[in-house]
Design a protein that fits this description.
Blueprint: E1 2-7, H1 10-25, E2 29-34, H2 45-50, E3 58-59, H3 67-85, E4 89-93, H4 97-108, E5 113-116, H5 128-139, E6 142-145, H6 148-156, E7 163-165, H7 169-180, H8 184-191, E8 199-202, H9 206-209, H10 212-223, E9 229-232, H11 235-243, E10 253-256, H12 261-269, E11 273-276, H13 279-287, E12 292-294, H14 302-306, E13 310-312, H15 320-328, H16 346-356
Parallel strand pairs: 1-2, 1-4, 2-3, 4-5, 5-6, 6-7, 8-9, 8-11, 9-10, 11-12, 12-13
Helix pairs in contact: 1-7, 1-16, 3-4, 4-5, 10-15
The chain binds uridine-diphosphate-N-acetylglucosamine.
C-alpha cells in the first residue's frame, strides 16, 4: 500500500505532519511530493524540521507565478512523478494551486485520488481557493471531510457516495504541538509581549492584499485596536505593501516575520485575540479558545462563528477600519466545550480508510 502526498504551501505542511506520522505508525509506504509553491524557508523548510516531517522524496521547484502558470508548471512536472511511483492513492490537501495540480494530474493518469479537507465552501466564486476546492472535490474518488457541514455541502453537490467524515487533521497536530510546548513565556519575552495583552494578526489573501484601498483600511483598523497587535507578515503582504507605498507600523501595530508552527501556537494560545484572513488560524484560535476576528465576508469554518468565538468583518466596507478595531477590542465570549473538528485522531482514521479501500 503506497500513498503519494502532494503538498506545496504552508498550511499543507501542517496537515501533512500527522498523516506522515500515521503512515509510519501503520506501516504504510508514503511518498512526499513538494511542488515548490512556497519556497521561503519560513514558509516551508521550518515546518518540515519543527514538525518532524520526512524530507520530500520529490521537489518540483515550481515557485511563484500567475495562477495558470503556477498550476500548469506543477501539472507538467507531475506526470513523470506519478508514472515512476504508481501509488495506490494520490492524496491532495486543502485548496491551493498545488491541490488542484495534484488532483488534475492524477485524474488524467487514472490514479485514485483522495482529497483531504473536502467539502469546504465559502460560496465566494472570486476566491482562487474556492475554484480549487470545487474542482478538486469533483475530480476526486474519495472525499475526506473534516466536519458535518462539509459532508452536507458534498451531499448537496451529489457527492455523498464518495464522502467520509474523518475529522480535522489540524486538530491532531495542534494537540500534539501544544502538549510539547515548553517555554512560551521566554518566547513572548523575546517578542516583547505579555500574556493575555496582545493580539496576533495575519493577512495574506489576494482579495485583501491586492486592492490598495482595502489593504489601507485593514492596516488602519489593526493600528486602531485598543491593545498591541503583532502582524506576522506573509511575503505576499510585504510585497503588496511595498508596491502600494503603505506603512505597516504605527499605532498599536508592529510587524514581524512569520513564526514557525510551534511558536505560532504558543503565541496564539497566550494571546488576547487573533485577527486574520487565514482559514487554518481561525480554527487554531478556536481550539485554543482565543477569540478570533476574521477579515472576510464569509468563512468556511462556520462553527467558530456559531459558537461565538469568531466574528466576521467586511474588509471592503467604508467603515472597515472601525469594524476591525471594534471587533478585535471586544470582550471574550461565553465558554464552550464543543468540539466540531474532532478529537485529534483524524489522521489515523484517514490512513485506515485509505488502506481499507486500496
Ligand atoms: C497560498 C494559497 C492559500 C493559502 C496560502 C498560505 C493558492 C491559490 N493560495 O496563498 O490558499 O492560504 O498559500 O500561505 O494556492 N511568495 C514568496 N515566497 C514563498 C511563497 C510565495 O515570496 O515562499 C510570494 C509570491 O511571490 C507571490 C505570493 O507570495 O507573490 C503569493 O504566493 P502563492 O503561493 O501564489 O499564494 P499565497 O498567497 O501564499
Amino acid at each position: 500500500m503506497k500513498i503519494l502526498s502532494v503538498v506545496g504551501a504552508r498550511p499543507q505542511f501542517v496537515k501533512l505532519a500527522p498523516i506522515a506520522d500515521a503512515c509510519r505508525e501503520q506501516g504504510v509506504e508514503h511518498v512526499i511530493v513538494h511542488t515548490g509553491q512556497h519556497y521561503d524557508p519560513m514558509l516551508s523548510d521550518v515546518f518540515f524540521t519543527d514538525l518532524g516531517i520526512p524530507d520530500p522524496d520529490v521537489h518540483l521547484g515550481t515557485g511563484s507565478g500567475s495562477h495558470g502558470r503556477q498550476t500548469g508548471a506543477m501539472l507538467a512536472a507531475m506526470d513523470e512523478v506519478l508514472e515512476q511511483h504508481q501509488p495506490d492513492w494520490v492524496l491532495v490537501y486543502g485548496d491551493t494551486n498545488s491541490t488542484l495540480a495534484g488532483a488534475l494530474s492524477a485524474v488524467k493518469m487514472h490514479l485514485p485520488i483522495a482529497h483531504l479537507e473536502a467539502g469546504l465552501r465559502s460560496f465566494n466564486r472570486a476566491m482562487p481557493e474556492e475554484h480549487n476546492r470545487v474542482l478538486t472535490d469533483h475530480a476526486a474518488d474519495l472525499l475526506l471531510a473534516p466536519t458535518q457541514v462539509a459532508m452536507d455541502h458534498l451531499a448537496g453537490e451529489g457527492l455523498a457516495q464518495r464522502s467520509v467524515l474523518v475529522g480535522d487533521v489540524m486538530v491532531d497536530v495542534l494537540m500534539k504541538v501544544r502538549a510539547e510546548l515548553t517555554d512560551t513565556a521566554a518566547a513572548l519575552d523575546e517578542l516583547g509581549l505579555s500574556a493575555g495583552e496582545y493580539s496576533i494578526a495575519t493577512i495574506h489573501r489576494a482579495e485583501n492584499t491586492d486592492d490598495p484601498d482595502r489593504l489601507a483600511g485593514i492596516i488602519t483598523g489593526l493600528q486602531q485596536v485598543d491593545h498591541p497587535v503583532v502582524l506576522l507578515a506573509h511575503p505576499r503582504l510585504r510585497a503588496k505593501v511595498a508596491d502600494q507605498g503603505l506603512d505597516l507600523e504605527g499605532g498599536s501595530l508592529t510587524v514581524r516575520d512569520p513564526l514557525p508552527y510551534p511558536a505560532l501556537i504558543g503565541a496564539v494560545d497566550a494571546a488576547r485575540g487573533v485577527v486574520t484572513d487565514s482559514g487554518g488560524l481561525q480554527k487554531e484560535a478556536f481550539a485554543l479558545r482565543t477569540p478570533c476576528t476574521t477579515v472576510r465576508t464569509e468563512t468556511e469554518w462556520v462553527e467558530t462563528v456559531e459558537l461565538g468565538w469568531n466574528v466576521l468583518v467586511s474588509p471592503g466596507a467604508d467603515d472597515a477600519a472601525d469594524q476591525i478595531a471594534t471587533a478585535a477590542s471586544r470582550e471574550e465570549p461565553r465558554p464552550t466545550d464543543a468540539a466540531p473538528y474532532g478529537d485529534g485522531q483524524a489522521a489515523q482514521t484517514v490512513v485506515e480508510v485509505l488502506t481499507s479501500r486500496a
